[in-house]
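Before the break, one more example. Copy the sequence into your notebook; we will annotate it together after we see the structure.
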Amino acid sequence: MKKVLAIVAAVALAFLLAMGDQLYKAVAPSGEFSWSSVKTALGFKSDETITIATKPKLPGITTIEKPEESNLSYDERMTKGDYYREKGFLTFAANEYVKASDLEPKNSTPYLRLTQANFEMGDFAKAEADANQVMTLDPSNTEARYYLVLIATKQSKFDQALQQISQLEQDGITDSRLTFYKGLIFITQGKHKEGEDLLSQVSADPTATASLKEKADKMLAAYQEFEFAQGAEDLYLGELLSRGLNQIGEFELAVTKLKDILKNRPDLRDAWNLLGFAYLNLNNTLFAVTAFEQSYKLDPQLATTQYFLGLSYAEIGRQDDSIVYLNYALSNGFEPKVVAQRKLADLYLEKADYAKSVAAYEEILKENNQDINAFVRPIWIYLEFLNQPDKALKLGEASVIAFPNNAMAYNLLGWSQIGTQNYVEGEKNLLKSIQMDPTQAAPHYNLGKLYEATNEKEKAKVQYQAAYELDQNGSIGNLAAKRYNILLVD
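Here is what the structure looks like once it is written out:
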């Protein structure tokens, strides 16, 4: 049994560390790290509300205002909703589909889009109501029937889902997606032979999409791995399949499967880790914390558990606990180190512990200086909070050495030279940055700050206007607008 558990541990650890590599890739260009960015990197839909700040107006600057949108047509509403959905702004998309349905209440299409948007947001009750409305308007709509299968499956209403699939099959509807989910239901219920056979059909089906085949193959790989570990217990197969469900984004099914495993064997550390991982992706952070805490009780030394426990604590606002467990993870060899270090740096910054934050950011640069954006936060902290422009300058110079052909590097160098009051060289490097990449707002903004420092207000306004026009909805554009407005009244 110990041998089997050791194999399980290795498998789960390999999975979680593989996820860790994706976490590193999920770091935003600004250096900011959040669980939602992890989900995006792993291909998961985000359901968090997205807000767009009101655009500041620069007096004297002509800006293009959006036309009045209250009279948009049905087609325009649908096009707008589709655009938002494609970009992942699901709440905005749903709002547009609702307005489209008001314009054409007997048209089933906006209700189908609403079904899809609400499903992707995880609001299964609304998605089901929308799908039923589609069926009322268009009883032959196969896609709505497919979504009703999905909704029942996600809610673990397996008998209902199987009944719906059976009815579709009786109606002569063949769809590899239905075969796939029927297979997953059987797997979750422990009917392994039936589930494996159905997923094998999907893998070999020429009509199945590449994405669906890839998901089927990942689940089939769990069975192959189980066969390779001769003599392993069924619990091992259960954990392998749960890992597979996490990998393909079927977190609700993973939770159902893992709960069954842990009901009988609450001493399985890796099952708790996999459960916590699934809950994190479902935004059930408190449940995730509970799962990772149970795993930690079973094995306080596992760096992977410590890392995810730290990450979960950060999500519920327990910053101090998060810092403790992230440091535990690093001391126990968590890899990739840069992931935990970046989260630590961000937490210290949130706590206004700038010395520790900048030290953590510099550790990241030692580990990996292949990302130009990794220089931004430490330079900013040295200039804006610690009043150590010489250290900022060293990093600015290092960025140009590491990225001699990157416009952002010259922006960082010019920015740091403003801090050391070397305005001549600062202007030269900021202009070079603009010449290399005229689409960047940051060097224009920094050049505006430089001209303010040298009391060249008209030049500064020109640069702030340019920065605003390049980044009207972004943070740099907002800062540029504020500086421009201040100069107008000075």
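Residues 1-68 have pLDDT under 50 and may be disordered. The chain is about 75% helix and 0% strand. Try to locate both features in your own notes.
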